[in-house]
Amino acid sequence: MVFDYGDIMEDIRFDGKLEYSIVNVGYIQVVRSANYFFEYKKGKDLFSFIYVKDGEIEYTFPKIQESIILKKDNLLYIPKNYPYYTTYLKENTAIRIFTFDIESNTLPKFLSKHFILKSPETFSVFNSNNNQNTLLIYSNIYRLLYIMRDESQIVPLKYRKITPAIDRIKQKYFENHKISYYADLCNMSESNFRKLFREYTTMSPVEYRNKIRIAQSRRMIEIEGYTVLEAAYITGFNNMSFFYETYNKYKNMHPKS
């Protein structure tokens, strides 16, 4: 008996099961004027992908003392029940949102914290004209989750060096330590610390600290009823002129009690 192996044949098979599934998807388009403000004290009851189509918007996460500004084509993931408040910074800021819920016995770690997606692949997802098609929405959300999982696992080792300083600033933003103090926390020289910090956060340690302070002072004034003077003092400002100047720099407005 003669066998002819002239043509090579190959089978590739894959079987897998997701540890979670998405349900209850939705799509929202929103346009707001400058200085429009709203808050989710307990977070939304759904997970969200938020894409900035045009304009500029600020998100603040009070529990972790972090504030970020999203610009055109930026994409942010926010988990379910994740408290935040937001301010639209430019006129006619337009955002597009995918909302969804997740069924899972254990939520994957990469879904537990907010995350900014950076892949250019994400732009086409939100610029589609078919986002009212339920099946396509499901497909797009799974695609975004896949991209986010991969991006969240890629953290350059060199940036982990400054984690002690970032954590300290977030937790104790009202302290007035010199930069050398934060550099020592990371066992780095001050010059290398400054360079790496700016490379990672796009701002200096002092700017980063002041940005958190201003976000907290605004919350204290507008939501919790503190006076401008009280909020400035509690968040670490000892000079009111500098407080007003810094507030205006980050919020493009003056604080009002």
> What's the arrangement of strands in the largest beta sheet?
1-8-3-6-9
Q: What's the architecture of the largest domain, going by CATH?
A: Sandwich
Which homologous superfamily in CATH is the superfamily of the largest domain?
A: Regulatory protein AraC
Order of helices and strands: EEEEEEEEEHHHHHHHH
CATH class of the largest domain: Mainly Beta
- What is the molecular shape? globular
End-to-end separation in angstroms reads: 94 Å
Rg of Cα set? 23 Å
Enumerate the spans where pLDDT stays under 50 for 5 or more consecutive residues. Answer: none
Major sheet, described briefly? 5 strands, antiparallel
Number of strands: 9
**How many structural domains does the protein architecture include?**
2
Report the portion of residues in β strands: 15-25%
Helix content: 25-40%
